[in-house]
Amino acid sequence: MILDGKALAARVRAELKTSVARLTAQGVKPTLAVILVGDDPASQVYVRNKIAACGDVGIESRAFRFPADCAPAEVFAAIDALNADPTVHGILVQLPLPPQFDETEVIERIALAKDVDGFHAENLGRLWQGRPCFAPCTPAGVMRLLAEANVDLVGAEAVIVGRSNIVGKPMAALLLQAGATVTLAHSRTRDLAAVTQRADVLVVAVGRPGLITGAMIKPGAVVIDVGINRLDDGRLVGDVDFASAQPVAKAITPVPGGVGPMTIAMLLANTVTAAERQLQSQDAS
């Protein structure tokens, strides 16, 4: 089975359109602010896609662009102003940032209630504690894909290859909460194949094209390929060798068209949730 993230993302967006219309009717227009520093081509494409996705569901987007050589204080001032603006519900700083920036310091500057990327340390801490938070968008998208495919995670052995703060670690927290037994591996894990062959659910997010082959996959496993790599010939491929993995796996995500569209869909969902929480706090007061 091919896990079609593009089709599922379209359904999620349709659900969000209804929520956005309801909020707008109640006087709250969900709004996402996007900050882009520099002219990195990939970042510009990502920001353009996110802004287009906002427009598709009725979320207002505001883009703030800064030159690559700008002082961090300029970006901090913009974040502070957006934190204080009640008409802005989500703030996203497109990564990576130029070398004069401390990315952690920038992320921590965003108000917790507006951290729709889910990268703030307190959001990640709340995630591990099972408390209300914004989960990072890619792991949240993976969980929605697994749910739609009716993958039973209770008692399942899940292996994640990749230990980043953006995907690997929060993915582990979400799978643990769902009842899976989780192993967090990475590119330096000894005898990686022996670890991945145990997995009922295998999530790969390391940024190495073709790292995982069909021989490293347990027959009948569900394989989620988070990697997206551009080869010299221009092709986009994942971290899993799709040709050898597909015959072995019970279900697998393609690249492109798998996890990527779900990441943006979950960003929109987090922005709508932020607007809903603001409306609830207004009603409570």
TrEMBL record:
Q: In which residues is NADP(+) bound?
A: G162, R163, S164, I228
Q: Which residues form the Tetrahydrofolate dehydrogenase/cyclohydrolase NAD(P)-binding domain?
A: 136-278
According to UniProt, the reaction catalysed is:
(6R)-5,10-methenyltetrahydrofolate + H2O = (6R)-10-formyltetrahydrofolate + H(+); (6R)-5,10-methylene-5,6,7,8-tetrahydrofolate + NADP(+) = (6R)-5,10-methenyltetrahydrofolate + NADPH
Enumerate the CDD domains for this protein.
Answer: NAD_bind_m-THF_DH_Cyclohyd
One Pfam family this sequence matches: THF_DHG_CYH_C
Q: Which UniProt keywords apply?
A: Amino-acid biosynthesis, Histidine biosynthesis, Hydrolase, Methionine biosynthesis, Multifunctional enzyme, NADP, One-carbon metabolism, Oxidoreductase, Purine biosynthesis
Q: Keyword ATP-binding on this protein?
A: no
Q: Name one GO molecular function term.
A: methylenetetrahydrofolate dehydrogenase (NADP+) activity
What family does this chain come from, according to its entry?
Belongs to the tetrahydrofolate dehydrogenase/cyclohydrolase family.
**Matching NCBIfam families:** PRK10792.1, PRK14186.1, PRK14189.1
What's the stated role of this polypeptide?
Catalyzes the oxidation of 5,10-methylenetetrahydrofolate to 5,10-methenyltetrahydrofolate and then the hydrolysis of 5,10-methenyltetrahydrofolate to 10-formyltetrahydrofolate.
Its assembly, as annotated, is: Homodimer.
Name of the protein: Bifunctional protein FolD
Organism source for this protein? Hydrogenophilus thermoluteolus
Q: Which gene encodes it?
A: folD
